[in-house]
């Protein structure tokens, strides 16, 4: 998270506004483009709700202030010229005023982005348990039970790969990925930790593509 906003050059634009690209922290989908001045950025950092300067309303505008489809701040990055911001956010609902998830509704997401969504849902189920949540029930049974479930799902994947249909195999693989993510959270980790290991291996060239 950015700590020193003084490095941002708001004076490059006559109106003191800089473009802000908002990306879903879980799926990496680009959600929208907005503009911030220094005050909007300061309020975003303070409230953790993404706030823009509305050029049409000529005032600060909290995304979701009417619809409650807030964008909850997760991280902020500045580009190399210090005049554009990338905001990583967690959307509380559709971002676009049309009701679409993204203002760039034609954007096609890579399949793996949905795994990030599942990871985020698991995290939410653990933090905010409900009586009917399968994830919460599984986690509450302890690490050994979760690990056992992953083992069972792995066996079912092998069986499906060798003797069942494509649909059966994909279904079993989906179950294995889900339960593996639950096990990851049961050990106090998440998908970001896996991503860091992959990135480190790539940097060290320990994995051959």
Compact description:
This protein is an alpha+beta fold. It has two domains: 18-91, Ubiquitin-like (UB roll) (Roll); 111-206, MazG-like (Helix Hairpins, Orthogonal Bundle).
Architecture overview:
Helices cover 42% and strands 18% of the residues. It is an alpha+beta fold and 209 residues long. It folds into 2 domains: 74 residues, Phosphoribosyl-AMP cyclohydrolase (Ubiquitin-like (UB roll), Roll), CATH 3.10.20.810; 96 residues, MazG-like (Helix Hairpins, Orthogonal Bundle), CATH 1.10.287. The strands form 2 sheets. A 4-stranded mixed sheet has the order 2-1-6-5, with helices on one face. Helix 2 crosses helix 5 and helix 4 runs antiparallel to helix 5. The mean pLDDT is 88.
Low-confidence stretches: none
Oligomer: single chain
Q: Which range best describes the helical content: under 10%, 10-25%, 25-40%, 40-55%, 55-70% or over 70%? A: 40-55%
How many domains make up the 3D coordinates? Answer: 2
Q: What is the mean pLDDT?
A: 88
Strand order of the largest sheet: 2-1-6-5
Structural class: alpha+beta
Distance between the termini: 32 Å
Q: Would you state the CATH class of the largest domain?
A: Mainly Alpha
């Amino acid at each position: 998270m950015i700590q020193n906003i003084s490095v941002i050059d708001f004076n490059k634009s006559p109106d003191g506004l800089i473009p802000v690209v908002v990306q879903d922290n879980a799926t990496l989908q680009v959600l929208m483009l907005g503009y911030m001045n220094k005050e909007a950025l300061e309020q975003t950092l303070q409230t953790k709700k993404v706030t823009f300067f509305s050029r049409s309303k000529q005032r600060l505008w909290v995304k979701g202030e009417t619809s409650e489809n807030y964008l909850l701040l997760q991280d902020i990055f500045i580009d190399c010229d210090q005049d554009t911001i990338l905001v990583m956010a967690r959307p509380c609902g559709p971002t676009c005023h049309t009701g679409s998830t993204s203002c760039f509704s034609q954007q096609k997401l890579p399949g793996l982005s949905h795994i990030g969504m599942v990871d985020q849902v698991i995290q939410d189920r653990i933090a905010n348990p409900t009586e009917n949540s399968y994830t919460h029930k599984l986690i509450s049974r302890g690490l050994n039970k979760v690990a056992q479930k992953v083992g069972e799902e792995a066996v079912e994947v092998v069986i499906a790969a060798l003797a069942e249909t494509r649909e059966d195999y994909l279904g079993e693989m989906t179950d294995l990925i889900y339960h593996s993510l639950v096990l990851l959270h049961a050990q106090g980790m998440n998908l970001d930790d896996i991503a860091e290991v992959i990135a480190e291996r790539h940097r060290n060239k320990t994995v051959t593509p």
